[in-house]
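Whether sequence alone determines local backbone shape is best considered at the level of individual chains. Part of our work consisted of pairing the sequence of a single chain with a tokenised description of its backbone. This step matters because it turns folding into a mapping between discrete strings. For completeness, the protein is quoted in full, as a sequence line and a line of structure tokens:

_____
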Amino acid sequence: MSQPKVLIAFYSRSGVTEALANAVAEGARASGAEVRLRRARELVSAEVMALAPGWAEQAAALNAKYEAPTEADAEWADAIIFGTPTRFGAVTSELKAYIDSLGGLWFQGKLNGKAGSVFGSSSTPHGGNESTLISLYNPLAHLGLIIVPLGYADPSLFKSGTPYGASAVSGNPPAPPTADDLEVANFQGRRVAFVARALKAAHITETKAS
């Protein structure tokens, strides 16, 4: 059977969520998955970005490394993993705009049965990681994805992360995710790839039977 295909669509400004995304990708690839890493784009004007020192420069550097996520990426994937910093306890507008763009695929039922999972970061402890991840479960359900939480299925979850998805607390100024944070993210990639492979096999079997 062909390897599962995993789309990791994320938004990152300082590089913290990007680091988690890459650890998720490493875990998925280690489980034999083909991975596409995509960064959602800014929605605000250059004038607004200029109000936060370094934002425009960081965005340009990240956009040079990663393509923007597209509808075609979501259709291609067997699993979709969303990653976002928390903004006032919820998903960033940049990533939400990408999720909202998937309405056409939703209407056609083309996302039904794919695996879905989430990860995120905040700048302060109790700064919204869990509420952000749980809030992302709502669009996953509406899109028809089969939600893959982490639970406590790996020893790494007793050191870091959440049962809802990998996470990191960066501080201010932001520091990179810890080794424990990245271990959870790596496990998430492996777990989602495993579930995506099983779902893909079940779909192939069901299709042949019908």
